[in-house]
């Protein structure tokens, strides 16, 4: 199976889905991580260009932990808008990754860029198929299922599907620690340790299915529907 | 896997889930069909007792098509109410069938008995575990997942999970035809042929996942949640 | 009554509402069909310009079947975005068609252009009234009711209002067959015959109201509300 | 058209739907008002039996204003529960009134008896048809549409359908004034004049459709659906 | 302020609201804890009668930690149903506790007794006022606001209101530990330590408002609405 | 407390929240009123530039009634779109007003500019904090809570929080009367007096909490959540 995960900022996929991505990788599926913005607002000590460079390196290191391919579409942090250009670029990534499933943000998550990312992904879902949308890569011949990740701290979100990530929680933490610049900054801003923060959400999602750690997902409801949305995710043991 | 399907009337499980039940049976899972009422309002030519006897025989023949076990809890048609007695009897059936998954009506389906059946099933979900609820069978040691079937003609229902039943649509039709008394009666009442009726819904659910025939389901949202609700249903091919 | 139907692509109105539009026409109401994009992605053998020309001709022929006026706003297929220009053009169409009711896509339908079309229509609803929005036509003096069509295969949609189209199903099929280029292309893409496809949805909507074929609608909830939303649609016989 | 309105207490139909009932009567439709409980908690000066007698007389006077038939099913106020007995009695009323449409409380209205009344009505909808449910009157041969009235002060309710009652607001007030015992009691309890109270809600519902006074309704979503739910209500002028 | 908390089983209020109840008590409000069932299914080693006695003692000790009054309505565990008797008994408790606010289960929580408790509370809300409902205590003269607690593990629940319980988390744990019989039993059943279990949910609710521990609530939507639902809960510091 | 109210047009805040804003001011809180568009479509006798000038003066006079600061972001009426420029300007206003709470339109209100305003506000909520978003004012160090106002005539809106504005209803009316140009125009357009119009909605919201006049609000659900959303609003007396 080919899996494409699309996040708004360089650390979002790690926070919300790294346990599941690590399971896909463990099971031999091909994982591609694509980040839409440069994350260049994520600092109070560096310039935007410096921040972008630091975060790209961190994201690449994190993707390397599970052997995932990595793309960044270089949109401006805090100002991600849907439009012809970003759609065309994402269609090209989709044609490269040839996903059976695309994992992205929930449309009502807390951050404007998360909400925009979710809409951009859904809006591109059919376009990869259309030969008349010209990009570097060849058109695909299937329309992937779309799964929404949990929201930050779960506000406004109810999982429909759970993945037991107890086995990969340490990989998830390792990926999160690669985002060292953010971990420090957010700790100062919110007084919360990054890993502790993510653990709190994973531990409640785990409780819901009676395991130690889990991640929650919803399947986007849109024609054509994948037949077995629950089988697009890695199985529990 | 053990599958318990609980319907309000002797033909409901056939109309809404027989294609999936046939797939379970094909895959070697143990299927139990349990009907809560006698269906004894389903006639305009027989007495209630005669109707009950006719319909029980039809339902048993239908269950036999896929080799399912059959139970009827003998509640009065049109007047199914939750209460200690029906709960205790259903708990006993659950302890006999030892289901990994229970399939039943959606809580907002059109018929009062369907709505009552849905609530009774959800209300019994934890009770099988409690040794102090005494019934003929031994307590179970797991809490099954609960899946809701589609509603009649799909009003008020959006599938979350689909099962491709193209392979078993003929078995479904064969099971429906066992309910000969109802088929004739409903044809007079609604001017619709039973099988045609069911085909119309299956064909649209099929279109949603790009196959010929499908059935739709939702997973009940209640603690503890099964880890992989989508894997409680038979896989598409 | 004046009816304005606004679709994203040249065949959308036919798929989702042609039976009702034909009933309006039959009853002597004035029907205007307006398509926002050129549909110029709808081919794998022609150029975008050729495709646009072919599809415009097909749409005009289809509108002619029921004697409807036809407009195309020439936006790019797959890349329909709300903005000042498309709003102003649609306001001008609304001032020309002077609708009592506007029929358009549901805001959560599967295709990005459908979702955009739905929002653009709702966003233009009040603007026709404002004399200071200058267009070729004179301002209107009423705010029309807005009705949303069903979604493709009904995913994410529950009808509030049904129109019995048994009498016009053949007209609907005739209009669909005018879109010959799409019919062939979609058949190759999805393996589904266009007319069969549409029949499957019409037949289930029909079952919900106990007739052969129906189309489903919802009324947009927005001030000012039409007093009798159900009377904005053609009556069943 | 035959209209059956079913309220929980002797004044509920007047508060929430009298304007529409008066319009039905004006248009020559046959209106039946059925009250499920005796309203015998509605006093702080009389006994329950006295209160029941007073309120029955008031309700009959109110029904007489529009020439409606009147039934009371004599259930205890504050303790209305669904059950075989009340269902059978209501089925018999339905077989007598032969309604094309049944108007009742919204299932989430504020009072336990309102919520119970709503469920009892929906639960009886199909039963009138079944010959094997024996009551004094003959079975009906149609399943009526069900419309829910607004909730008290509109909490938890959004109208889908509006009726312009400007023409019958005075009749509505006249019917309300027949419930003199309640008007006085509620004035002491809530400090609100009955008619003023009802006017406040009617005036906002009116504003939503740009008229002076209106009442709001929703159609119950249940198979089989009436084809034209909006045409089950009296037309605006 | 007088606070009445109504739970289904002897430990439910502790699991879902003890942090907030402890804050009320700290602020000098009068807290009454009322449990509807005896909790007599909560054992696999004792008889029902023994279990009821053990759990009553545990619940009384827990209530004593914060100086709360305690009532148990002695309904059977697993078989709690709404009815005239339990309503009348709860009305009497409400007349004794004279609550400004009643805290109870969410209507869609996982356990049948939780769902029944929620409905019973809402159904009794107005009845305390009616002099003609006779109980040992005098009628109240106000209708309290109703707040719903979180569900177990938060499935199907989104908080509208949060209480920061960081200051009383240790009191909450102390109250939970009084339910020693359940703590041991649930540990065997679900493999989860009681306190750890509750901490996981409190820690995520805390994260949502950027504190260490929190509890979440919703206000029931029903006329008459308390003016300041957020002021019915203890303030954060 | 610092309160920032953001409306789409120069009179929206008065219609939907002036009673609450007046209460904040009475209690000594600092109130800032920010209007996103010039309201320059609001006339059928003046040019757009004249209309903008008239309405700005009216809005300033209205703000002066309660001593509120006033900003206008000069976007075009009827054509308000989210984008980098309007976001940056609003972030700068937020950094100037330093709000503890931001009050704005509901995301589904009837007018396109109201819906856009709601989204723009939510999209700017976090950005004030980011030092790398450069504006004239210094970054803030907190993320404010966001409250949504009622919709026009309450369509599609259910209050979660109510403010009793009986004490400030006359101030609200006085502020509305400052918008003389609109009052006259809307009277011609909708046949409704401005103040009467607003009174109708206030009187029903008042009825819901048993007072004379009220305004309704909802708290936006987004991380991080304010701990006590109900305490962000002025208390009832």
Automatic annotation (TrEMBL), chains A, B, C, D, E, F:
GO molecular function, one term: hydrolase activity, acting on carbon-nitrogen (but not peptide) bonds, in linear amides
Alphabetized Gene3D superfamilies for the sequence: LmbE-like
GO terms under biological process: glycoside metabolic process
Keywords: Zinc
Key word Flavoprotein present: no
PANTHER family listed in its UniProt record: N-ACETYL-ALPHA-D-GLUCOSAMINYL L-MALATE DEACETYLASE 1, N-ACETYLGLUCOSAMINYL-PHOSPHATIDYLINOSITOL DE-N-ACETYLASE-RELATED
Protein name: LmbE family N-acetylglucosaminyl deacetylase
Source organism of the structure: Herbihabitans rhizosphaerae
């Amino acid at each position: 199976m080919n899996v494409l995960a699309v996040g708004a900022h360089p650390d979002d996929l790690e926070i919300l889905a790294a346990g599941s991505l690590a399971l896909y990788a463990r099971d031999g599926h091909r994982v591609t991580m694509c980040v839409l913005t440069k994350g260049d607002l994520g600092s109070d000590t560096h310039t935007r260009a410096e921040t972008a460079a630091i975060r790209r390196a961190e994201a690449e290191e994190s993707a390397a932990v599970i052997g995932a391919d990595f793309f960044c579409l270089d949109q401006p942090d805090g100002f991600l808008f849907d439009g012809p250009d970003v759609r065309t670029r994402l269609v090209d990534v989709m044609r490269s990754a040839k996903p059976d499933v695309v994992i992205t943000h929930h449309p009502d998550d807390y951050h404007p860029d998360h909400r925009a990312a979710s809409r951009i992904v859904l809006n591109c879902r059919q376009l990869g198929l259309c030969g008349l949308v010209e990009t570097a890569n060849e058109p695909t011949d299937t329309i992937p299922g779309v799964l929404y990740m949990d929201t930050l701290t779960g506000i406004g979100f109810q999982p429909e599907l759970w993945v037991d990530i107890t086995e990969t929680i340490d990989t998830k933490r390792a990926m999160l620690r690669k985002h060292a610049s953010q971990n420090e900054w957010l700790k100062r801003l919110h007084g919360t340790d990054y890993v502790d923060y993510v653990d709190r959400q994973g531990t409640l999602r785990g409780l819901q299915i009676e395991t130690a750690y889990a991640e929650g997902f919803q399947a986007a409801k849109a024609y054509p529907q994948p037949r077995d949305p629950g089988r697009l995710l890695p199985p529990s043991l």
